[in-house]
Amino acid sequence: MKKKCVIIGTDLRLSYFHTAISSDLETKLIATMTWDDELQASIDQLEPHILFLPIHPLKMECPFILPKSCEVLFVGKQNEEIKQEIAVKDIQVFSYLEDEQYIWDNANLTAEGFINYFYTHEKQAIYNKQFIITGYGRVGKRLAHALHHLGAKVVISVRSEHQLFEAKSYGYDIETLDNVLVKQKSKSAYLINTIPSRWLENTHAACFKYVFDLASNPGCLLDSDENIPTNYALATSLPGMYFPRDAGLLIAQSVQNHLSLLKGEKSSVERS
């Protein structure tokens, strides 16, 4: 008998995720981003063994209470209500956004998504353009690799000395984050931010031809709620925007791998 799995969320990626795991689980997709009395009642009635929460936090309009039937909870970005409920329940909890394979594969989709976004937004070639990438984590590394192979001039800018010289060893130009603004008098470079914290003065966006912020909301601007620069774009969730099927299958692979580990079996999900 198949385990029951309820998937919550409105992201288009989840419809592909739903289809991918439906051969192994008895699934139901509930398209909402609000946890309210109606959703709580539906969850209790369905009695799922597995509950999948969306990538972005749910809006809470009533207490978050897991059903007694729930054995495994998959979480994206959590809010306090979810954290508090997890703390008092004896269940398996898996954060798919922290799955290392998922992170790297999703970084590849983000890099390819940015290229699509740039072409659509700027209607220019990447070849021979200068891109300053702030941050050299997974997304920064995959972006640098992709842009370099399209003929761009890539500069990596971070505070970490370790990451600076790692980037230099791969042939990229480097600049410390503290100095990156000083050398942008010509306004000829595009800035791609991947650092998930507010560090850039809004007025300093004018130092760049355009600022593409790929970090999670609220992005890198210090006062991002007002006075948004005209040359600034918060471009998040690029995999879901351009490749929802591929991105949904990545989530499916992560979930199935984890369930298989719990059962001591190999994953049955294949990316195609």
Automatic annotation (TrEMBL):
Domain called S-adenosyl-L-homocysteine hydrolase NAD binding: residue spans: 126-183
Coiled coil stretches, renumbered: none
Protein's UniProt name: Dipicolinate synthase subunit A
Protein source organism: Psychrobacillus soli
